[in-house]
Amino acid sequence: MSPSDPATPPAAEKRAASPRLAVATLCFGGLAAATTQTMVIPIQSDLPRLLGADATDTAAVITITLLTAAVSMPVAGRLADMFGKQKVLRACAAVLVLGSVVCALSSSLAPMLVGRALQGVAMGFIPVAISLIREVVPPAMAATSVAAMSATLGVGGAVGLPLAAWIAESGDWHALFWIAAALGAIVAVAVEVLVPHVHDGRRGRFDYPGAVGLALGLVAFLVGVSKASAWGWGDSRTLGAIGLGVVVLLAWGAYELRTEDPIVDLRTSAQRPVLLTNLAALAVGFGMMAQSIVVPQLLQAPEATGYGLGQTILEAGLWLAPGGLMMMLLSPVSGSLINRWGAKATLMAGATVLASGYLAGLLLMGSAWQLMVAACIAAAGVGIGYAAMPTLILDAAPPREAAAAVGLNALMRSVGTTLAAAAMGTVLTSDTQRLGSVAVPTEHAFELCFVIGAAAALVGVAIAATIPARSRQVAEPELVRSTSGRG
Fold it and tell me: What are the b/e assignments for 161-172, b being 16+ CB within 10 Å?
């Protein structure tokens, strides 16, 4: 059916019928996927007993999800550009259900790692949904809707922590994963029923060698970085893993530049607006994760230290939950800022607010409610900044590569969070004091972490300032939409 066929108007009407419901569905899917990133943190210390494994091995229950998520986001984006975004969204929701069920049925380490890896793969839902939004909402809603969807990356993790802590304390820990499976099933049905179907796939050759090379390089590099605080930055294992990752990624980049239909178009990624936005994503991602690590540890530090606040895991999660809600509530504000001042200025504003949150943290370490205020300021900055980045990417990247480009941007945020986790872990373990037989970070270590987080955010401001100005163009996507509602 051609676009000019008289039978096509119902599709256009369908697109305009309930765009807010479609956006809400996509945001709910993003929240469900992002929640899995932090859902096992409340039971992390119990995992050796629950899974009958050593603590050094059970640490992978958390890291394997981060690793597979980092790989899946650009790969899912490329698949979405090839086969259609909605098909990939349905696949991600199905993988979330499968991974959650595998975890729910697990009582040993190996199947748990398989399930957690699959949950990480489901994170590909978020960048694909971000790139789909402009195709299913009116142009006037695009900026606000992208802002709301982008915020789910931070909101899911922030809300997931207290929710998981409450579930784990009140019942069987397997219930965490049964609930995640139920959420994934709801997402799969909602995407099928409530999100308009569009034929936006542009078939091409899938770059299998590129996908494998990207996976190997990222996994090696991120394992080295994530283990650096435990192994030591000068340890041969750390240097070997990071070095191997860098070498593989360089070889992968050389291959990608010479192949047709690459998994990531590095020439597009090297354009200044895209490159600088991705570098800013690295800095802002670092800033976001830094407060997610430091503030909970400060809240839970023993009161006997003189600065610790003695909160339980559940209490700490509840103090942090308003920050996640702050990100979501600021989505309409972010969209208005983007529409009025542009995505570049909005990104700079978000990173500046994030830095302000860290500086406020230096002055508000005396009580839990004060730390909550500082965390909310930082979360507001993350929400504003995360909203602006996909808009900058979508404005600069060709439509045929939109999902892959957003996926790469999400990957850069993920790399930033991994670097932050390693850096904060190193600071907190290298400056300690004895409390009985236990070594705990000093107050100076926490203060230094706040300073580092603020510096990273200000680096993001400086990078964003160099992004070339661009007049925002909102064009109707040239898509052939299904009148039957099936894609």
Answer: bbbbbebbeeee
Interval 11-23: pLDDT, tens:
333 443 588 888 8
Give residue 108's region: left, alpha or beta (phi > 0; psi -120 to 50). beta
Four-point Cα dihedral 158, 163, 169, 170, nearest 10: 170
Strand, coil or helix: 263? coil
Closest C-alpha to 292, from 379, 410, 225? 379
Class of domain 9-206+261-481: mainly alpha
Separation of alpha carbons 220 and 203, rounded Å: 31
Distance CA 297, CA 470 (A): 42
Q: 34 Cβ partners below 8 Å, 6+ apart?
A: 123, 126, 152, 153, 154, 155, 156, 157, 160
Q: What type of residue is 461?
A: V
Rounded to 5°, angle at Cα 395 from 389 and 399: 115
18 contact partners, CB below 8 Å, separation of at least 6: 194
Helix (H) or strand (E) holding 84: none
Q: CA 425 to CA 293: how far, in whole Å? A: 8
Instruction: Give Cα separations from 24 to 8, 36, 137 (angstroms).
Output: 25, 19, 12
Secondary structure letter of residue 468 according to DSSP: P
How many H-runs (helices) and E-runs (strands) does the chain carry?
21, 4
**Neighbouring residues of 52: CB distance < 8 A, sequence distance ≥ 6:** 107, 108, 109
62-88 per-position pLDDT tens digit = 888 888 888 888 888 888 888 888 889
Helix residue ranges, H only, 301-342: 313-329, 331-341
Please provide residue 158's backbone torsions phi and psi, each rounded to the nearest 5 degrees: -70, -40
∠ CA(232), CA(237), CA(242), 5° rounding? 90
pTM (whole model) above 0.85: no
What are the tokens at 359?
Answer: 């500086």
Q: What is the DSSP string of 104-172?
A: HT--SHHHHHHHHHHHHHGGGHHHHHHHHHHHHS-HHHHHHHHHHHHHHHHHHHHHHHHHHHHHHHHS-
Closest CA to 354 of 319, 389, 314: 389
**For tokens 């990939």, what's the residue?**
88
Contact predicate 114/140, CB 8 Å: no
How confident is the model over 16-69, as pLDDT tens digits? 358 888 888 999 998 898 888 878 877 777 888 889 888 778 878 888 888 888
